[in-house]
Specification:
heterodimer, A: 255 residues, two-stranded antiparallel sheet, 41% helix, B: 422 residues, mainly alpha, Cytochrome Bc1 Complex, Chain C, Helix Hairpins, 2 domains, 15 helices
């Protein structure tokens, strides 16, 4: 009886949602490849997602916690990363003359931000700051599903909702009015691997990419976790057997 | 005149030489070794004390490793945490252990306290043992709150703002006290710096109070599931090897469950908003505390007046200090207290309900339920517990732990007999 109550107690501790929920339409629930205890990222999807980020999102959104060298996780080799980073211009300095100077990006550089600072980003976007995307799937309740839903959630506004100047209707955004215009359109990018670039495909790929950007350690973490838990379970069984044996002596002594 | 103490009796000559001069091995043996007699009937609920100690050690070790890579400055704190997560070798593991370790520290301590309440361990002669435990609990809450501020996310910032604001309700000196705590008029860099310093200090204060907690424990030894005093050697077994191996088994199971959280759902117990850098100009839609502080947050919000709400919240914790004197029933274990047992489980359910309500918006049904649960919390301690002593008839207690024969009267044998009351 006590045991049942205890188990119920522990579960009820976790079962209620710790997060206060926002009143918005329930988004899509996609079966991402990175879910579950053995989940891994889909490398070709990550590469396509990088392309969507670079060609679409990066005109407004920074990704400052990711360095070009991290792209090796996506399956690129050193040469490819070097060539990719060289496409970007990095402000460096001051040099020996005390001057700031521009140079091509290197693998050790972090992703170059579209704006020099937050105020510049706000000024260019009607006062709304396009958030950095490095942690976006961890920083929003609903995570990857929420991001995906948001990206495909641009629909015709119902008559009951008045869409203000500079705002856009989105089915899944809290309050339904978002300052970000619809970013993805069919064939908005031409995928290098020939995949058809539908809105859903691009949203899915860029969500996979940004999930990786938020948790690049995920695959290693889960692998380590399997090993750690296997070890601890064996340790638990062995110590339980040892405990039974030691306590058996006690019972023998007393009878 | 004191003559030099006798030579120690250890087999190993080196250990013996050291112990004769510095009796650390004797001390260890008396703390967790063969010289520490323990009731033989302790169940698995008694695992959680030593488990809490292990979690504290895990927290201190991971905490020091994090401190080596953390920068306590409003402009760099959030970035430095992300650097730990991404660039420091094993940094994500250390941080996720520390982050989830805080939650699991509270889970373990809550179970430890719930066991204590069920078996009446707080009663004479262990009142000070219980009070030291409540002091540890208070210090833990302070440490956890300070630590939650350090990543400098949105919840860090706004949580710190809300909680330090509690002190502004103190008449006349409230505002100066808040400025003094914050090191300015709002939560800012000086606040982060002092919170970091205190967050590093308090765990060692906790360790010190734990030492006192253990000294107090060894005065009368552990309580036991029957709640009766041990009568003779037949009731006792040495701590080592019986409880060392049992605790080790419990630790293995605990760590396996802990690892599920650390490796597979590391952010489940946190709040997504804290992955947004702190922004003093943008208040989150809902400011919620970590789950382990949630019941007290529910109590705070249940009272419509700010001053009374803060008093109720601190009172809810303060009431624990006088619990040994509120509960005058001479029988410890709920096993032999049919009415207390019912009210005990009601109390547990009420606590869980408060925890749930603390993270909901205080409006409509949630506000009404929050008030009802808050009222029940105080009714339980101030009315039910003292009343039970009068109206409850305890069941017959066994004569001793090893003797299954039940005595006819319940008031005397094995019951606590508070001094001066008999």
């Amino acid at each position: 009886m006590m045991r049942t109550v205890f188990i119920l107690m522990v579960f009820s501790l976790f079962s209620f949602s710790v997060h206060a929920s926002d009143p918005l339409e329930k988004g899509e629930n996609k079966s991402w490849s990175f879910l579950g205890p053995f989940g891994t990222y889909n490398k070709s999807s990550l590469q396509r997602g990088l392309q969507v980020y670079t060609e679409v999102c990066s005109s407004c959104h920074s990704l400052k916690y990711i360095a070009y060298r991290n792209l090796s996780d996506l399956g690129y080799n050193k040469e490819e990363i070097k060539a990719f980073s060289a496409n970007f211009t990095v402000m460096d300095g001051p040099n020996d003359d005390g001057e700031m100077f521009e140079r091509p990006g290197r693998p050790s550089d972090h992703f170059v931000s579209p704006y020099p600072n937050v105020n510049a980003a706000k000024a260019a976007n009607g006062g709304a700051y396009p958030p950095d995307l490095s942690l976006i799937t961890k920083a929003r309740g609903g995570g990857a599903d929420y991001l995906y839903s948001l990206l495909i959630g641009y629909k015709e506004a119902p008559d009951s909702i008045k869409v203000l100047e500079g705002m856009y209707y989105n089915k899944y955004y809290s309050g339904n009015l978002i300052a970000m215009p619809q970013p993805l359109y069919d064939d908005g990018v031409v995928y290098a691997d020939g995949t058809k670039a539908s809105i859903e495909q691009m949203a899915s790929d860029v969500t996979e990419f940004l999930s990786w950007a938020a948790e690049p350690e995920m695959e290693e973490r889960k692998r380590t976790g399997i090993a750690a838990i296997a070890f601890l379970l064996i340790m638990a069984v062995l110590s339980y057997m040892a405990k039974q044996q030691i306590w058996a002596n006690l019972k023998k002594k007393q009878t | 005149m004191k003559i030099s103490p006798p030579e120690s009796q250890f087999k190993n000559p080196i250990i013996n030489w050291i112990d004769t001069r510095l009796p650390i091995f004797t001390a260890m043996n008396e703390a967790v070794g063969t010289e520490h007699p323990t009731p033989k009937n302790l169940n698995y609920w008694w695992n959680f004390g030593s488990l809490a100690g292990v979690v504290l050690v895990i927290m201190i070790i991971t905490g020091i490793a994090l401190a080596m890579n953390y920068t306590a400055h409003v402009d760099h704190a959030f970035d430095s945490v992300e650097r730990i997560m991404r660039d420091v070798n094993g940094g994500w593991l250390i941080r996720y252990i520390h982050m989830n370790g805080a939650s699991f520290f509270f889970i373990v301590v809550y179970i430890h306290m719930a066991r204590n309440l069920y078996y009446g361990s707080y009663k004479a002669p262990r009142e000070l043992l219980w009070i030291l435990g409540v002091v540890i609990y208070l210090l833990m809450m302070a440490t956890a709150f300070l630590g939650y501020t350090l990543p400098w996310g949105q919840m860090s910032f706004w949580g710190a703002t809300v909680i330090t604001n509690f002190f502004s309700v103190i008449p006349f000196v409230g505002e100066p006290i808040v400025s003094w705590l914050l090191g300015g008029y709002t939560v800012d860099n000086p606040t982060l710096n002092r919170f970091y310093a205190l967050h590093y200090l308090l765990p060692f204060v906790i360790a010190g109070v734990i030492l006192l907690h253990i000294v107090a424990l060894h005065r009368f030894g552990s309580n036991n599931p029957l709640g009766i005093d041990v009568k003779n050697d037949k009731d006792m077994i040495p701590f080592h090897p019986y409880y060392t191996i049992k605790d080790f088994f419990g630790l293995s199971v605990f760590l396996a469950i802990f690892c599920v959280f650390v490796f597979f759902v590391p952010n489940l117990l946190g709040h997504p908003e804290n992955y947004v850098p702190a922004d003093p100009l943008s208040t989150p839609a809902h400011i919620v505390p970590e789950w382990y502080l949630s019941p007290f947050y529910a109590i705070l919000r249940a009272v419509p007046d700010k001053l009374l709400g803060v008093l109720a919240m601190f009172g809810a914790i303060g009431i624990l200090f006088i619990l040994p004197w509120l509960d005058r029933s001479p029988v410890r274990s709920a096993h032999f207290r049919p009415m207390y047992k019912v009210f005990y489980w009601l109390f547990i359910i009420n606590m869980l309900a408060l925890g749930y309500l603390g993270v909901q918006n205080p409006e409509g049904i949630y506000l009404i339920l929050g008030r009802a649960c808050t009222a029940w919390y105080f009714i339980h301690f101030l009315i039910i517990i003292p009343l039970l002593n009068v109206i409850e008839t305890p069941k017959a207690l066994p004569k001793s732990i090893s003797d299954p024969i039940f005595s006819s009267g319940s008031s005397e044998l094995g019951a606590t007999t508070p001094r001066g009351q008999k």
